[in-house]
Known about the structure:
Blueprint: H1 6-17, E1 22-26, H2 37-43, E2 49-54, E3 61-66, H3 74-81, E4 87-88, H4 91-98, E5 117-122, E6 130-133, E7 140-145, H5 146-156, E8 161-164
Amino acid sequence: MEKRLRKEQLCYELLDELGIEYARVDHEHADTIEACHEIEGTLGAKICKNLFLTNRQQTEFYLLLMPGDKPFKTKLLSKQIGTARLSFASPEHMEQYLDITPGSVSVLGLMNDGGKVHLVIDKDLLSDEFIGCHPCINTSTLRIRTADITDKFLPKVGHEYALVELPWGIEE
Length: 172
């Protein structure tokens, strides 16, 4: 553990404090959902897609959790959460609000945001017993019960979430 980054150690400490069980797989850098497919088999859980988004003015920030194999279109989400012109937030904002670098975005980063990031979850993700996510670094992936994230972790870090329904098919 002493060889792991402090931000990763803090994730494990918080999960342990909350009594949240997890399984961990260590691996090479996995920056994209495509790079995570092999890890999913080893982990025994689907890795969720974590998108860090912002409005045009860069005054509101959103973390979207959705199934990793589901396509994403910003305008479909924008309508549901009542904001216009969502785009991907900058690496600087990821560091500032989540203490995470690109490719490592995870719901666990909400332990660092001080309540400034809005959490949005696609309803299909909640039907899975487990989710796979990075512990704030993309060289490890954790399998955590979805209910432990929603019922234990999120209340501890002061977050509620907005539920959205994004389609599996995207019409152009």
